[in-house]
Fold these 2 entries.
Entry 1:
Amino acid sequence: MAKKNKMKPRELREAQKKARQLKAAEIKNNAVPAIAAMPAAEAAAPAVEKKKSSVKAAGMKSILVSENKMYITSFGKGNSAVLEYEVDKVDNNNYNKTQLSSKDNSNIELGDVNEVNITFSSKRGNESGVEINTSNPTHRSGESSPVRWDMLGLKSELEKRFFGKTFDDNIHIQLIYNILDIEKILAVYVTNIVYALNNMLGIKGSESYDDFMGYLSARNTYEVFTHPDKSNLSDKVKGNIKKSLSKFNDLLKTKRLGYFGLEEPKTKDTRVSQAYKKRVYHMLAIVGQIRQCVFHDKSGAKRFDLYSFINNIDPEYRDTLDYLVEERLKSINKDFIEGNKVNISLLIDMMKGYEADDIIRLYYDFIVLKSQKNLGFSIKKLREKMLEEYGYRFKDKQYDSVRSKMYKLMDFLLFCNYYRNDVVAGEALVRKLRFSMTDDEKEGIYADEASKLWGKFRNDFENIADHMNGDVIKELGKADMDFDEKILDSEKKNASDLLYFSKMIYMLTYFLDGKEINDLLTTLISKFDNIKEFLKIMKSSAVDVECELTAGYKLFNDSQRITNELFIVKNIASMRKPAASAKLTMFRDALTILGIDDKITDDRISEILKLKEKGKGIHGLRNFITNNVIESSRFVYLIKYANAQKIREVAKNEKVVMFVLGGIPDTQIERYYKSCVEFPDMNSSLEAKRSELARMIKNIRFDDFKNVKQQAKGRENVAKERAKAVIGLYLTVMYLLVKNLVNVNARYVIAIHCLERDFGLYKEIIPELASKNLKNDYRILSQTLCELCDDRDESPNLFLKKNKRLRKCVEVDINNADSSMTRKYRNCIAHLTVVRELKEYIGDIRTVDSYFSIYHYVMQRCITKREDDTKQEEKIKYEDDLLKNHGYTKDFVKALNSPFGYNIPRFKNLSIEQLFDRNEYLTEK
């Protein structure tokens, strides 16, 4: 055997550094970003190729450690964990193994266990029988504890906060981290909601000028909010409430709450109007209260507010949550039969083996409760695979007008097959997909399953297609259904079925778009499901460890129920259409974003769009703007997070637009070019096509669209379709720009949230922090932990304690910042100042090559903006660099991020562009 060439430690570090740089450069060159991925909880970059670890693919879920015992679990049904083995350590290399699972439920076979490795094999899937090694989690060189000590040194404090005592295991801390992930994701979304609500007031001089949400509190009733002088509150608090009340009324007058689907009633009845305002106040106050809970240090009793405040505040808040959920459920239930009459009639005619009542109940499950999404695989993908391989007939143009209806009925039949008729086949498919290693393997599994299904459903699918006749559908739509709604009583959900925490999450979805709703609910469901499984294992007779949560976290004892309720919330929540009462405001924003001066009068808007005129065929322009701008989710997003006039100004920056276009896939650019350009040269280069599209976006004017006819034919119709494509491209490009910057900011929101939380935890164990206030100097935590390493080597933080070289780097970055600078940085993150000030500074950037560089250049210009503070030396130095180089300063990024230096991996990921951007972007679909 050849002798290994050993490298010196310094040479090894240099080689590893060079390899990381080359890898980062390769990733950056091969994957041009389009949409920055929203962090699900902690900011971790998703893999370019979706590939599981061999351990997960073979079926092992986790290895839990409690004192000298390990408990090995496998994946069961859904997200459930199957306790497979108990492994008891006798001495260094001797372990007793006891199987806990039954033969029928067992998914893995445990092999050799030694001090370093654990060997096992899967009993199912493609990897069946193949031995796989994983590390023994109890092996810790030089450490006496059988459990890995966390690098932050906060494990014991977290356990005491959540369970009242410490444990010598890794089970409790894993459950705790799932709860902390819930708080992280809420911190991101609530911060964004607060910014969007403040932004609806219009842009003023500073990032905090319009932050009326910051003073809203769910501790005050609506009566106190509207008449603070009648309360016993202090004069200072009364003054803050009056300021918030004034801005609350200003917000109502803007009509921009209509963008969130909040419809102000048209009535002279003041009681109805006041009831609406009261509900809106409750919604905003709850959002403000959640923000206080997740974005500020809540050491002491107040830290539990997030999970308990909704049950402790005045009942009028809970009444509003009841109203919102009940209103939605009533609307769904009321519209179910009328909206699905044709499909139900067709299904009753076709599904001869089913009772009509049973079909109605199953279809309710499918349409309203969306139970197909809980099967563990995609019904839609199965149908697509079936039609792709065998269903050529169904792709015919004759089905274009009814394709959606046809596919929905096909999907329902497949759903019934797995949900009712062949549950075992569904569970087998879930197992196969779980054991797959790559996306290609998954595609193959779906294709194999589709081939089995085709013979079974071919006749049913053809029968559905034969019923896709316009006359048949029309007649069924006219017919009355003899139907007793009581048969759905067991299926229907009511507001009383949900805990108030779940109702509160539903309320948050009012302020989110469809993708945001899906991301938030998917993450919450996953975390509560994990917590439920940990509690189940901890309570099992085999493990039997203490799992009594402290008072503030009792909610998680109901994790199973909340998981089920959040599934319901996810299914009933949707992005709401803009309210009709806000149409004039929306027309103003629409015309402004297309290039009209935002100072245009309401009368002039009405004149241009003929809003007050009646007659046939005169509202073509109004309808065109409605259909292609106002009803665009991208337009709504831009108004929520930006400013119509400023968006138009930013769009004139060809350099920025070209960068965003560079992140859109080439095939999509080809389609945009063909649709938008009047005389396209399809042989021109992609660079030339992007350049032409950027020029069109730069020069877009309202006059380009004012003569478009909605009911157009021939050449006029071609012109209309081209105008639609141009507007769609323009809104998409600006959406991608703003969305990316919002998502980049989310990474720093999480860091601030964790800093506030960790500071409160460290105060419990470090006397030097007991009298400190984070708001006075956000560097104080990192600074103190570094000093403890240098002075007495007593820092509990192993990141800093074990890496002197990086600790010295952090200390330099701390010294390069000052308290006012980092305080402003924190506030800019909290108020999304980069998005607010984008137009002011983006034109000064010399090279636009990443969202990270855009974000930090604008951020640094905001930080160095001259103010009346006394410490200007560092700001002036950095400002000179910014103005000279026309790009962000790397050392300035590290200085501003020095408050996060106590967590070195997070600090590096947030400070170094190659690490931050690594695989961090997704392409537009």
Note: The longest strand covers residues 81-91.
Entry 2:
Amino acid sequence: MKRLRFKALLILIAGLCMSISVFAQQMTVNGVVKDPTGEPVIGANVIIKGTTNGTVTDVDGQFVLSASKGDVISVSFIGYKMQELPATANMNIILAEDSQMLENVVVIGYGTVKKNDATGAVTAIKPDEKNRGVQVSPQDMLMGKVAGVSVASSTGQPGSSSSIRIRGGSSLSAKNDPLVVIDGVIMNNSAPDGLSNPLSTVNPVDIESFTVLKDASAAAIYGSRASNGVIIITTKKGKSGSVKINYSGNVSISTKRNKIEVMSADEYRDYITTSPNVTEGMLTALNLHPGVSTDWQDEVLRTAVSTDHNLSAYGSVKEFMPYRVSFGYTDQNGILKTSNFQRYTGSLSLTPSLFNDHLNVNLNAKGVYIKNRFADTGALGSAVAFDPTKPVYNNSKYGGFFTWTGDYTPDGTRSTSAGVNPVSMLEMVDDRSTAKSFIGNAQFDYKFHFLPELRINMNMGIDYTSVEGKKYVDPNAPGSYQPDNDATGSRNIYNNSHNNKIFDLYGQYSKDFESISSHFDVMAGYSYQSYRTKTDKVTYYLSRRPETFGQNATVSNEFKETDTKYVLASFYGRMNYSLMNKYLLTFTLRDDASSRFAKNRRWGLFPSLALGWKLNEESFLKDFNSLDELKLRLGWGVTGQQDINQGDYPYLSFYRDGKGGAMYPVYDAAGNVTWVNVIAPTAANPNLKWETTTTYNVGVDYSFLNNRISGSVDGYIRKTKDLINAEVNVPAGTDFAEYVVSNIGSLENKGVEFSINTRPVVGKDFNWDLGFNIAYNKTKITELTYNDNSDSPGKRFESTGGDGGLRLKIHSVGYAPGSFYVFQQVYDKDGNPIEGEYVDRNGDGVVNDNDLYRYKNPVADVMMGFNSKFSYKNWDLGFNGRISLGNYNFNATAANAALGVNELFGNNALSNKPVSALETGFQTRQRLSDYYIQNASYLKIDNITLGYNVSKFLATGCNARFYATVQNPIVITKYDGLDPEVNDGMDNNVYPRPITVLFGVNINF
């Protein structure tokens, strides 16, 4: 008994000792965090290393934290180096500026610049890993993020491209896409056939940052290519230290948001049978399949499941060889049946530093393999118009699909002008391509040992893409069925390759002259770029004979191949000068030559000048302690354009096959005929020269409260002259074509931009980040033809679609490019449009083409982007959205629908109509009525993401984040069509953008 009491006493004493020891080890840490100038750092993260126990500094930079003896306190804040210090009762922590971060925030052409020393309209963003939606291509990461940058996906097709515009377009016939530079390699903006999006060759998870050069003072260093702005993409690199591994993956489910409202089978039967204009033929066609009800849009659309997986590792070999390697796999299924996009990516980055950091090497290699299956988007238009009282299948000889025939029997002769079964357009066509791409560069930067202020940089890069494609149309497919068993269906085989090479060499001298409080940075270099494109294609008819079914039978389009190349050579230079770290000057000059122009027109000179004034460094603002940055910027510059759509040799005339497959009969002595292709000379203009754009920009950059509030304001005027216009009419007999590409025209852009990024709430548990940007842009043509006083209203273009399509748009002086050219609709007293009644605008008593007028245009006047992210302890919630105001669409689906007998019943076949046709009651199509030019302004929430962070997942040092995202959940618009976001404002056969739910995980080892 005594022994038991003695043991109990020993245990009690030991426990008390342990408690006293533990209590003695606990402490309350009182600390303050300041920057190098002694100013408090607000919102710095303070955490006990290896735990989730932490806090943030208050408005005085102070914090209080419970810790134990031996703990390490980790302090971090954006723009400063992380500090790790042993825990003590009182801590005074000075955060050192992270010069690497500060100096490389803004990547500009051929170098970098400190963010607060930038003099041009430059925006740098780093993708938010936690507030992002479905991102398959790099442009998806820019949507709504940068003021004045419009990113609109062309369709909802997997792997589809996007239209990217920086401050609107500056060209008419030339391309309006910005120049894209990836790790120093200038990309080719055009995609080869079989690859819908050239940027899809880059995996978004490999991207570290974007820099957008918006004005000419920033972009003129790229001279010949920069009239539409520049986007510089920097990919992730390795870091010193032990290897780190990251896995990210997700699975998504996509489905249609809405459908075009058409008459159902019952509504259609009722409408036809009760129509006063119904004919016996219509009733016969209507009653072929009593009781059948088919929703054709449901038949061609589906719920699609997609996946995305990425694995990366980074670290360094013995501190001198940082590396990063990554692999990715994307399998994206479209909601239009049969459409699919698969991508395999791999990247390697090596950034060794040699000779005591005097030689820095940057080696990048990115490879991709893409498999596409394209679905015929025409099936969407066919689904809207096809008779809902007919079945999908009826055991016909046309692959079993219901097909309109002359005698309405399954094996009758196909009615060639009737609508085609939309499901057959998908299931009887196999349209596939495979693309292989490689983007790589080797960059060497040497800082001279005897003169460290002088460095030389050499960059060699390649962008190579090859595509192989085959499109097989079944011999029995209704859309191409021919009675000849050896000339039906088709197989189109094509190959394309783009081989782009670049060589850059420049020297740079950078030095501080303290005696005159100045800093000089001078750079000069040479660039060579070559772009070679090779194509070949051939099309065969197929056999329908049982023994050779589906095999090539006869040639439909003979084998053709092309091999073209153009070259750019450039000399360039830049000087940056800073006086007293307050007054900034940047001057650039680039002299470019393009082989697309004749020798006497080949060279173009592109200068720029920018001034900056750091107002916050002035003595009269030194007392404003909350002011981090206030900088005034003034910029002027000239940029060029040679990226035209008229081939690589527009100044030369050469022979080509005649248009429309024209052929000429040649008879031999026996009277036998041989048909040969007609060849004709092409139009040429040896006087064609650079299109040049001059930009004037004034801007202010601001930042307050340790960057808790930051942003910029910009205003600009952009004038383009010598506008390359492919639609210039020339006098008869002066050239081989009616229209020749020429430098005839000019246009002007004016705009204002504003952006703000804030952290309204900074706390221990709860934080809130908020961003907003808005841009206004107005574009008008100021000169277009040889004579501005010409009676011609301008060149009309862009078909309304449907049989006998009409030209809907026009380029005219004094108006926005591509304005709609339409009749002014007359309405009755109840506000309903009167069929065929238009305003006689010129008052001559006759309504004809002279009464057409320019009404609205597809480009938005105002664009906004907004994003927000909330975080509470381990949870985070974020969303991204956009607003577009003043953009108009031509609703082609509604405009091509009418209810007359000839519209409903043609070639012994019935067709369905949208319910919008019932609202107007039009018996014939009124495609040039301004009634169909509809306001397509919208508000879109692009994505909403909810995430949960696990600091210790599976093992120590491993963390994870689980998240769920809804893509495209909210669209608010008055537009009557399927989706208000339409490229070029022509809403016809648009692949619908789906609503997508995504579940994902990100794990760091």
Note: Residues 1-24, 99-104 have pLDDT under 50 and may be disordered.
